Amino acid sequence: xxxxxxxxxxxxxxxxxxxxxxxxxxxxxxxxxxxxxxxxxxxxxxxxxxxxxxxxxxxxxxxxxxxxxxxxxxxxxxxxxxxxxxxxxxxxxxxxxxxxxxxxxxxxxxxxxxxxxxxxxxxxxxxxxxxxxxxxxxxxxxxxxxxxx
Length: 149
What we know:
This protein is α/β, with parallel strands linked by helices.
């Protein structure tokens, strides 16, 4: 895994910029979907292209940052094939990969500090999906997507 999509709204710009640099230092290729300046933007306008790029396989995982991480996760999860999780603690960031095979991490720039955000990004990137009994649960989520218009 090497290609990561990232984006933010005005509530997450500082965090996003720090995460981009951190990921590059770790050797990841980062596609930055913005924003690039501190101005108000609607989070779905950023979440959608990031989620589409992950769902299409253009990027292997994604990171979205808004004020709480919740709005971004709600918008990203509307894209078929996306399992976006808003996390603000170490356990959730690890287990959303381990058990849920989440492919987008959503963070809150107004909820956690940059240091914690970088730690959560590392956990999310470094944790593999456990599979096994959890695979059946992911298959059930995918079945729901197929049933819904």
